[in-house]
Sequence to fold (221 residues):
Amino acid sequence: MPSGVVELFTSQGCSSCPPADAALEKLIKKGDVVALAYHVDYWNYLGWADTLSSKQNTSRQYGYATTIGRSNVYTPQAIINGRTDVNGADLGAIEGGIANMNAAGQGLSVPVTASRTGKELDISVGAGKGTGDVVVAYFKRYQTVTVTRGENAGKTFDYLNSVTDVETIGMWKGEAMNLKIPMSVMDVSEYDGCAVLLQQTGPNGEPGPILGAAKIMASGT
Fold:
């Protein structure tokens, strides 16, 4: 089971974000957390439209603001286990936040696995307390982007695990369950892999605490 889930909200047009993108890369390469990048679209007006941004990613970030009681959003913002936020460029704060949550019983407590069987993606969620949604975040593993305008004009960046789509595929009611998804939905021209999140939601569907997680590449690795 991963030690935690880190969701970075970032933008190619934000001069403060490259250190956070680099911190996320370190987390991904370390391999003990599920780490995802969500590119938001509200900095696009500065002169560079983030090539990986979407309104859906921005909406997810605003949903988290409601969950954790913030009146605003910012980049780079890292959400840890769907419960709290830290500056996404502060790797020590991210790793410390994960450790503190695990010590306080707010870590990932429900086992989630994802595996490929033939042309199907098999998802298994263990038993536990509470209820939640089974959420799949599809991502591109690696992309290189040269920014030609805005605050980061003239710079080239590597982006890892950039989320392109998020969908809810099932509801969990505390009992062990299994789900199957046709691998055809993981079109490798659009996605390289996905993260499966067992996530509680707020009264208006906003994302909340993450109880379990797993990651799988489209190739099955």
